[in-house]
Specification:
The complex is a heterodimer of chains A (158) and B (302). With 158 residues, chain A is mainly alpha-helical. Chain A has seven helices and no strands. A six-stranded antiparallel barrel of chain B has the order 1-2-5-4-3-12. A six-stranded antiparallel barrel of chain B has the order 6-7-8-11-10-9. The longest helix of chain B is centred in the N-terminal third of the chain and has 32 residues. The chains are: A mainly alpha (158), B alpha+beta (302).
Chain lengths: 158, 302
């Protein structure tokens, strides 16, 4: 279905805000290390689905919000999110025709890249986090992808 | 089967690379400036106001639930609570009776020995906001910020003992780094013999480490560990924890000492921000300064 090229930003903003809240929602310690990067998944979805409504500005400012919320060096999440969002936007025409499984794998690669940039900046700024559990987030994020797509699509169609 | 709708028929990605490079450079610039210089503190303080609504929105349902539970507690439970608190208060007052006199005496003795320890001036109580900051670091967000005069490096206590210090200040909120964070260290001394060392966080709330004690050091399990007040960040004489375990391996030159923190690091809801009394102006030197050895002798406690 071809839609008018009117850009709707409301769903984008709304979903990003909810994802931002989920990023700091208190969880029991056991689940805490399993928390997927909700905001990253949402930003990747919009980069693939509608780069004109969201695009790199969304990625950059969402990353900045994460930096401030998490209290890490300013620009860390912004850089990682910008790069991964650009990559997703570049691949988006291909990703759209992928099967669900392949999509999940691609998202896994993007999320791992995201974590790797965070990991690298953590190390470069002198407070490395070497626990293995940080590499679990991409796996969970990729597993959640089909659900997130279904949810966000609902939101987008309304 | 989920498929993407094609909302962007034109596929406008021209300039994607350019924008990507621009934003990345901006982010890299931010990282470098934030790391190297302090200029961004002000910006960050105001940025924290922007995300404050999100933080409040996330924390408030939990606070609301607490409030609800509190308001539906039965009369009996409240009475039981009241009786318990009155008992605790009576006990605390009993312990406090001699405190004023002892504090004055301690200050006098310290003045005699020319050792100026930092003394607490006043407190402000802050509440921990129910948020997860970073799963891999021991930090909490508290609802007091630069607006209330909080400053970076300020000592933070809870009712049990030393909790941590302020790592970052926002306008309305501040971030407190716990004594148990792997990047945190605090100057301490053993109460029993005045032995001074440094307690370092182990990365989880269950224990701290004293990594710089030689195997021959006089520490045993059960010793009380207090802040030494050296370094000026923390007031002297507040409990940091008790020694839980001492492992001595004769082949190693350093002992492995674990400290069980005195503060309820994983349970506290309310924290005290401490202001130190400005040090008394130093007296003009009458006699030639004493040798440094006199100063480094163990400091007995009040």
């Amino acid at each position: 279905m071809m839609r008018e090229s009117r850009i709707r930003r409301l769903p984008v903003l709304l979903s990003s805000l909810v994802a931002l809240a989920l990023a700091v929602l208190p969880l029991p310690p056991l689940l805490e290390s399993l928390r997927p990067d909700f905001l990253v998944v949402v930003v990747l979805y919009w980069s693939i689905e509608s780069p004109r409504a969201a695009g790199l500005s969304l990625a950059f400012f969402a990353g900045l919000a994460l930096d401030v919320l998490n209290g890490v060096v300013l620009g860390q999440h912004a850089l990682a999110l910008t790069l991964m969002s650009a990559w997703a936007t570049h691949l988006r025409l291909r990703i759209r025709v992928f099967s669900m499984l392949t999509q999940c794998l691609t998202i896994f690669a993007l999320l791992t890249g995201y974590q790797f940039i965070l990991f690298w900046i953590d190390g470069a700024t002198g407070n490395p986090v070497t626990t293995f559990s940080r590499w679990l987030a991409p796996v969970i994020g990729a597993l959640l992808w089909p659900m997130m797509v279904a949810l966000l699509e609902k939101l987008h169609e309304r | 089967m989920v498929a993407f709708r094609n909302t962007d028929p034109s596929g406008r990605t021209t300039g994607l690379l350019l924008r990507c490079v621009l934003y990345s450079l901006l982010a890299l610039g931010l990282i470098i400036v934030d790391k190297r210089y302090e200029n961004l503190a002000q910006i960050r303080r105001w940025l924290s106001v922007v995300v404050y609504p999100v933080q409040v929105a996330v924390a408030s349902p939990f606070e609301g639930w607490d409030w609800f539970r509190e308001s539906v507690t039965t009369r009996d439970a409240l009475r039981a609570d009241k009786a318990r608190l009155e008992g605790e208060l009576r006990l605390a007052q009993f312990h406090l009776q001699r405190f004023a006199a002892l504090e004055a005496e301690s200050e006098r003795l310290r003045a005699l020995r020319e050792s100026t320890a930092d003394v607490t001036d006043h407190f402000v109580i802050g509440k921990i906001m129910d948020l997860d900051l970073d799963a891999f670091r021991e930090r909490v967000l508290v609802d007091k910020g630069a607006h209330d005069g909080i400053y970076v490096g300020q000592a933070v206590l809870d009712s049990g003992g030393v909790f941590g210090q302020v790592a970052r200040v926002g306008q309305l909120t501040s971030e407190v780094i716990l004594v148990s964070d792997a990047a945190h260290a605090i100057p301490v001394q053993i109460n029993r013999n005045g032995l001074r060392t440094i307690a370092v966080g182990a990365g989880d709330t269950s224990h701290l480490k004293l990594p710089y004690l030689p195997t021959s050091a006089d520490v045993v399990a059960g010793d009380l560990v207090l802040t030494s007040g050296l370094g000026g960040g923390f007031p002297a004489g507040y409990p940091v924890g008790t020694i839980a375990e001492v492992k001595r391996d004769p082949a190693q030159s350093l002992a492995e000492v674990e400290v069980k923190p005195a503060a309820a690091l994983d349970r506290s809801r309310e924290l005290m921000f401490v202001w130190l009394k400005p040090r008394v102006a130093e007296l003009p030197p009458l006699a030639p300064p004493k040798p440094a050895a006199a100063k480094s002798a163990g400091v007995t406690d009040k």
